[in-house]
Amino acid sequence: MAIRDIVTGADNPVLRKKSREVRDINKHIHTLLDDMRETLKVEQGVGLAAPQVGVLRRVAIVEYNDEYYELINPKILTATGETIEEEGCLSVIGLRGRVKRPEKITVAYLDRNGKRRNIEVTGITARIFCHEIDHLDGVLFVDKMISETENTEKGE
Ligand code: ZN
User: Fold this and answer.
1) Distance from the CA of 38 to the center of ligand 1, in angstroms?
2) Geometric angle at alpha carbon 63, from 113 and 1, rounded to 5°
3) What pLDDT shows up at residue 152?
């Protein structure tokens, strides 16, 4: 496994492109998933999308509350309710803000073995899923931000 560099900057064109669907889940995709997990661990994040490591494919991972998800070609099928919470992004350094997201979503995706799965997630987990899936369409949380919150990096 290898740690990959995170692409940063809300105006970075790599983060603004729509990622392509994965047609063939081969060893390159497995390496990508493994590297992304390693990178997420080092960065102490809760989710990472492939474009954030410069790969424009529809792949994302979420690791939150001792649960780990690998999402290939994820698609939100249903979304209900709404919550407003603070978010940040490993690609947008030094900025956090409140974003409105659904409370509950169901998502269809492929796992690393190519098996089609459906999952229902709620609360913060649903929020992270939505955030990562947005990345695959070139959308960043700053686009949806209602208001900026404190810059936690400055400890304010
Ligand atoms: Zn992000």
Assistant:
1) 16
2) 60
3) 56
pLDDT digits (tens, 9 = 90+) for 80-133: 999 999 999 999 999 999 999 999 999 999 999 999 999 999 999 999 999 999
DSSP annotation of 98 = E
Number of domains into which the chain is organized: 1
Rounded to the nearest angstrom, the distance between the alpha carbon of 141 and the centre of ligand 1 is 7
Residue type, 50: A
Q: Contact at 8 Å (CB) between 63 and 46?
A: yes
* CATH number for 131: 3.90.45.10
Q: What is the dihedral of CA 43, 49, 50, 54, to 10 degrees?
A: -60
Q: Which amino acid is at 5?
A: D
| Ligand 1 centroid, distance to 55 Cα (angstroms) | 14
Structure tokens at 69: 């998800």
Closest CA to 88 of 51, 43, 123: 43
Flag whether the pTM goes above 0.90.
yes
103 domain-assigned: yes
**Catalytically active residues, by annotation:** 132
Phi, psi of 116 (to 5 degrees): -75, 130
Give the three-class secondary structure for 144: helix
